[in-house]
Amino acid sequence: MLPPDLDIAPEVAAALADGRAVVALESTIVAHGMPYPRNLETALALEADLRAKGVVPATIAVIDGRLRVGLGRADLELLATGRNIAKASRRDLAALVATRAHGATTVAATMAIAALAGIAIFATGGIGGVHRGAESTMDVSADLYELARTPVAVVCAGAKSILDIPKTLELLESLGVPVLGYRTDDFPAFYARTSGRRTDRRCDNALEVAQLTAAQRRLGLGGLLVANPIPAEHALDADAIEREIAASVAAAAAAGIAGAALTPFLLGRLNEATGGTSLAANIALARNNVAVAGEIALAYAAL
Ligand code: PSU
Ligand code: MN
């Protein structure tokens, strides 16, 4: 029985009922991850890219307290331009529903809602993880715990090095989350094709990922992470980005920014400091993740 708070768009519901390919998309990247109007253009482009492949996009958000799976243009405009759209992770969903508020869903909350709707594949840019300094702040994204418990395959370009990537990979291992490298042995670092760390398994085509996703779901073992490196022509110079990241992390500490506000602060400062280049890279890797997720969803639907 689906909760009465869930609204699945007719196009998405029909595709799910027919066993056709569906890919979930998150909305924090729209409301808090990119500036207007590129956020809106990107959200629309990601959906168009999927449709062009014969895959139905299901962008997820909370609108007026409804858990919405599949948004219209007006919903995307609201998220892209709204001044007070809450960033919604798993723990925020009940309050947004109860107070009939809006929320842009993080990877964790998008996974939870996608699973309620029966969607198995989800594409995003980068996931949250273990923050630098977590040994004293204990700031670890709920995304990692969601991956451990919720049966959705998340296609991402790894994690930004605003995070501590070795600790993030250690925790994913502890939580039992398979970390697959898509056509790579290395775990990518968002703007860069490698973090210097390995994934735990390499997959060379979408069918392999679809079969692994199906097995993971049959066994009830939770989610999995598919790490897909940024296309080489869009990758940024790792040293230059690293300097900006270190400065952003220091600025956050000096301003006493912590908790849910930390990731949006770091993303915003980084976007400003690196201007158009990092934004262009961000958009390119998101589209690349959607392309791979679309292929995985098509292979999954054909199993
Ligand atoms: N990393 C990015 N871009 C993003 C996010 C993370 O490079 O937009 C967003 C995602 O929605 C992710 C969330 O789920 O930030 C993680 O926030 P937190 O660290 O507060 O869990
Ligand atoms: Mn956090």
Q: Which properties best describe this structure?
A:
303 residues; alpha/beta; Indigoidine synthase fold; 2 domains; two-stranded antiparallel sheet; globular; binds pseudouridine-5'-monophosphate; binds manganese (II) ion
Could you characterize the architecture of this molecule?
The model has no long low-confidence stretch (mean pLDDT 96). The protein has helices at 10-18, 28-33, 38-52, 73-81, 93-98, 107-117, 134-137, 142-149, 165-174, 206-218, 238-254, 262-302, and strands spanning 6-8, 22-25, 56-63, 66-69, 86-88, 103-105, 121-123, 153-156, 179-182, 186-189, 192-198, 201-203, 224-227. It has 303 residues and is of the alpha/beta class. Helix content is 49%, strand content 18%. It is globular, with a radius of gyration of 18 Å. Strands 1, 2, 3, 4, 5, 6, 7, 8, 9, 12 and 13 form an eleven-stranded mixed beta sheet that branches. The protein has two domains: 1-119, Indigoidine synthase fold (3-Layer(aba) Sandwich); 127-239 and 277-303, Indigoidine synthase domain (Indigoidine synthase fold). The structure holds pseudouridine-5'-monophosphate and manganese (II) ion (MN). The site of pseudouridine-5'-monophosphate (PSU) has 19 residues, from helix 2, helix 8 and helix 12.
